[in-house]
Design a protein that fits this description.
The structure is a single chain. The chain is α+β, with helices and mostly antiparallel strands and about 650 residues long. Helix content is about 55%, strand content about 15%. It has 21 helices and 13 strands. The strands form three sheets. Strands 5, 6, 7, 8, 9 and 10 form a six-stranded antiparallel β-sheet that branches. β9 and β10 form a beta hairpin. The chain starts with a helix and ends with a strand. The relative contact order is 0.04.
């Protein structure tokens, strides 16, 4: 009967190529079975099945009603044994699962430690070693190392260690030489002081001799000796430099400013220069009669020589110049020298500086004499002459205005020297007087601001500063490094600033790396020349590991979170009235690090557990982060704007 029942069951074959309704297929199959099967056989199968079910139910009923149930107890014993076995297997499975979890955690930890080892960067890579060629020439046993390296007895690491040892020995030798030079310097300074003391003791003797010689000079009818007046050389100055000198000196005396003004150059040469100029003017103005002159043979100069002489004459300076020296803290001195280009009727400025205590690359960039006075006033970079006539003069002679040789013609330099190009031939004393105080204050503020910037960039205690305010920072910050304009415009996430003109080649560019656990944030900072009037601009790029042990590179061009972080730092800087300018950049950088850690902690990544009080991780369609810090009685709370 079971065979017949199995044969009578409908079998439906599903064809993937033709989609057929299952109900239609079953109905069609039933119609076919109705027409082909025998009714009597189906009835027999049905009744046999019923009788069999009745026998089974009767047998089951008899088993339940029996008084003697040994079979039921055996079933219970078997059931208990099965349950015990099941519990044992479950415990074994749980133990295996726990071992698997422990092994997976240990595997993840080992991978993490391996990645740290692979990313480890030794500090010896920052040491500037001498080139390998120099090492081979100067090191006594370098040839043996090179031969062993070529033969495979040693590797590159052993050679690098030997180069480091040799570098250390050389630096020790140089340090000893430097100490000897310092001792010689101290000896020479002591000798100079002794000579100065002797000279100072001679001065009273000379005064006594001068007093004793006066009766003899009177008896011979000779004029008494007079001290050379410093005003004599002042009178030889051209008018623009003369106005500059007297106005600067008057401002120094009136305001008790810590700067000195002096005149540099040869007085006799200046007098000859002025007399020759006057002779040329007189010769050109007088009408002379043509008188035959004896012919003289001379060598004809070439056109190139004549042209070079004319070009050099066009950019010729007056022999005298005015020096303005400003002394600041840390033994820092800035010397500005003002020159007068006679044929162009133009004032140019050259800057030289000296300092001690600053050795970083960004300190040299911030105190660079070639750019420290650029954009002292808006649009005044000193690259071109503000006098329109000079453009045509230089174009006529096909000469370029080289600021490295003659200095930079800043507009403010013309104003403090009294030059007004609407009336360029007569320098105005009032123009110099009205602008001297504003310009000198601006220069002093610029120098103090640059020194403050160096101090803030050198700051290395951000963690302590922000931990006092209730925010714990665990990021590791690398030192700042300068960045060239060519490297800046090559970065994809920096190009939008170049295209929109928010960053120009006159700005100061710096770069640093912020490491927060497994994430690395590259920070490019742009400081305008007129800082702190203009806030710094930050561009960011984030490198963080992915799930498949890769590395994702995120910036403002491909990630909204990095774009939001840039907007938070560049746009939402709320400067208070009592904020110290000397702490402004430190606060901005610290706030950038805080927001970076908040962003990483709100992403839900397992590598960045929460260490700060955050109400909501993300909010809104743009999935904004809680970058706004709010003071609460329990501490700092971060919320959305």
């Amino acid at each position: 009967m079971s065979e017949k029942t199995s044969q009578s069951k409908p079998t439906i074959i599903r064809n993937k190529e033709s989609e057929v309704d299952i109900y239609t297929a079953v109905a069609k199959f039933e119609e076919i079975q109705t027409s082909h099967r025998d009714e009597n056989n189906d009835s027999t199968i049905y009744f046999n099945t019923l009788h069999k079910w009745q026998d089974i139910m009767k047998w089951n009923y008899e088993l339940k009603n029996k008084d003697d149930t040994p079979l039921n107890r055996l079933d219970k014993i078997r059931s208990k044994q099965k349950k015990d076995l099941l519990n044992k297997k479950k415990q074994e499975i749980d133990s295996k699962h726990l071992q698997q979890e422990n092994l997976l955690n240990e595997l993840f930890y080992l991978k993490k430690e391996i990645s740290k080892c692979l990313q480890y960067k030794s500090s010896d890579s920052d040491i500037d070693l001498v080139p390998l060629d120099t090492f081979c020439l100067e090191s006594p046993d370098s040839s043996d190392f090179i031969d062993k390296l070529k033969s495979g007895l040693i590797n590159e690491h052993d050679l690098h260690i030997r180069r480091l040892q040799w570098e250390f020995e050389q630096r020790q030798t140089q340090q000893k030489q430097c100490d000897e030079v310092e001792k010689n310097k101290e000896t020479i300074l002591s000798e100079i002081q002794e000579e100065s003391r002797i000279l100072q003791s001679i001065l009273p003797m000379l005064k006594d001799i001068r007093t004793a010689a006066q009766p003899l000079q009177q008896s011979f009818g000779l004029a008494p000796c007079q001290a050379r007046s410093y005003a004599d050389i002042v009178n030889v100055l051209p008018k623009p430099l003369y106005y500059l000198y007297i106005q600067t000196d008057a401002y120094r005396v009136a305001c008790k400013s810590k700067f000195t003004v002096s005149i540099n150059g040869d007085e006799e040469e200046a007098r000859r220069f002025d007399s020759n100029k006057n002779n040329v003017v007189d010769t050109n103005s007088d009408e002379e009669v043509d008188v035959p002159k004896p012919k003289k043979r001379h060598h004809k100069k070439s056109r190139t020589d004549t042209k070079s002489v004319q070009q050099k004459s066009l950019l010729s300076k007056h022999p005298l110049s005015v020096k303005l020296t400003l002394s600041l803290k840390n033994n820092t001195q800035f010397v500005m020298e003002f020159f007068y280009l006679v044929n162009l009727n133009l004032i140019t400025v050259t800057v030289s500086s000296s300092w001690s205590g600053f050795s970083s690359s960004y300190s040299r960039e911030l105190l660079s004499p070639s750019s420290i006075l650029d954009a002292l006033f808006p649009g005044d970079n000193g690259k071109e002459s503000p006098h329109i006539v000079n453009f045509h003069q230089l174009e006529e002679e096909k000469t370029e205005f080289n600021t490295m040789e003659v200095g930079k013609p800043y507009i403010w330099a013309q104003s403090i020297c009294g030059l007004d190009f609407l009336n360029p031939n007569t320098p105005d004393f009032l123009i110099s007087r009205n602008n001297i105080a504003q310009v000198l204050k601006a220069i002093n503020n610029r120098l103090k601001t640059r020194l403050s910037l160096i101090t803030q960039l050198d700051c290395g205690d951000l963690e302590r500063r922000f931990s006092i305010n209730g925010v714990n920072l665990t990021s590791v910050l690398s030192p700042w490094n300068t960045m060239t304009w060519e490297n800046f415009i090559k970065l994809e996430y920096c190009k939008p600033h170049v295209e929109f003109g928010t960053v120009t080649e006159n700005d100061l560019l710096f770069k640093r790396v912020v490491n927060y656990k497994t994430a690395t944030l590259t920070v490019v900072m742009v400081i305008k020349c007129d800082y702190p009037k203009s806030n710094p601009i930050f561009t960011l790029q984030l490198n963080m590991p992915t799930i498949n042990e890769g590395m994702s590179v995120l910036n403002s061009t491909n990630n909204n979170s990095v774009r939001e972080l840039e907007r938070e730092i560049n746009v939402f800087h709320e400067q208070t009235e009592d904020e110290d300018i000397n702490e402004m950049l430190i606060n901005i950088i610290g706030r950038l690090v805080v927001c970076f850690e908040v962003m990483m902690e709100t992403w839900g990544h397992s590598d960045f557990p929460k260490t700060k009080t955050i109400l909501y991780n993300i909010r809104g369609r743009a999935r904004n982060h809680p970058f706004k810090a709010v003071q609460h009685h329990s501490g700092i709370i971060f919320e959305h704007r």
